[in-house]
């Protein structure tokens, strides 16, 4: 059996390839790249048993949901659309609050959201730049995505699924109308970074 996944650039000369392995054992890999130094790199990785608290991705089971290992999932969700775009203290407060509740899923946004109760300017964005100076839509900000990954992993440790909304219309930064080429790069990049997280659910857009 072969599985093909794409890699991504994570800054400082590091290229990363991620896979959510579905079986224990030794997996071998071989890279394919137009960059000579990254092409035909081969090796092996031993996949060990998951932690007892890790049940794998959630899938549809008739009228219900189950994790990959058969554990029943009951989606009791809440929304905190822009929580990962708030100051660090607010993000940690959100995690602490979620840890004291029975929620098993949180609906959240990839891009910052501008609406009545959320008018603060985030510290950083998926793209390098700012509202004042503009954004470089040809590049992503790896540091921003590493922080997002940390939050998703922390949700997973609490047994909470991250229902990630990729696009939305509540915007003042221009992210709601990036054009088809940039939209496609966003989807490809985010999928390559986050598809190996077992607790990520995907939502292409929020409302219209």
Question: What does it look like?
Answer:
The structure is a single chain. This protein is α/β, with parallel strands linked by helices and 208 residues long. Helix content is 20%, strand content 25%. It has 3 helices and 13 strands, in the order ββββββββαβββαβαβ. It has helices spanning 88-98, 142-157, 180-194; strands at residues 7-9, 15-17, 25-30, 42-47, 58-61, 64-67, 72-73, 77-79, 105-109, 129-130, 134-135, 161-167, 200-205. It has a 4-stranded parallel β-sheet with strand order 8-9-12-13. Strands 5-6-7 form a 3-stranded antiparallel β-sheet, with no helix packed on it. The protein is globular and about 50 Å long. The N and C termini lie far apart (39 Å). The model has no long low-confidence stretch (mean pLDDT 94).
Order of helices and strands: EEEEEEEEHEEEHEHE
* Number of helices, counting only DSSP H or I runs of 4 residues or more: 3
| Oligomer class | single chain
Task: Work out the radius of gyration.
Answer: 18 Å
Q: Which bin fits the share of residues in helices?
A: 10-25%
How far is the N terminus from the C terminus? 39 Å
pLDDT < 50 runs, ≥5 residues: none
Strand content: 25-35%
Inertia-based shape: globular
Number of strands: 13
- Biggest sheet: strands, sense, closure? 4 strands, parallel
Structural class: alpha/beta
């Amino acid at each position: 059996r072969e599985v093909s996944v794409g890699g991504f650039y994570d800054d400082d000369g590091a290229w990363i390839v991620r896979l959510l392995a579905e079986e224990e054992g030794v997996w071998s890999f071989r890279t394919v790249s137009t960059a000579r130094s990254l092409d035909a790199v081969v090796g092996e990785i031993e996949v060990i048993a998951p932690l007892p608290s890790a049940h794998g991705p959630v899938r549809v089971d008739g009228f219900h949901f189950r994790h990959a290992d058969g554990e029943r999932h009951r989606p009791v969700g809440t929304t905190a659309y822009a929580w990962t775009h708030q100051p660090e203290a607010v993000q940690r407060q959100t995690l602490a609050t979620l840890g004291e509740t029975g929620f098993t899923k949180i609906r959240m946004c990839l891009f910052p959201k501008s609406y009545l109760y959320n008018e603060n300017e985030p510290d950083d964005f998926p793209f390098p730049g700012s509202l004042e100076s503009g954004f470089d839509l040809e590049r992503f900000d790896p540091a921003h995505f590493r922080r997002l990954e940390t939050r998703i992993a922390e949700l997973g440790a609490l047994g909470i699924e991250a229902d990630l909304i990729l696009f939305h219309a509540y915007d003042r930064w221009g992210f709601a109308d990036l054009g088809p080429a940039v939209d496609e790069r966003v989807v490809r990049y985010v999928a390559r970074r986050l598809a190996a997280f077992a607790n990520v659910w995907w939502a292409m857009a929020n409302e219209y």
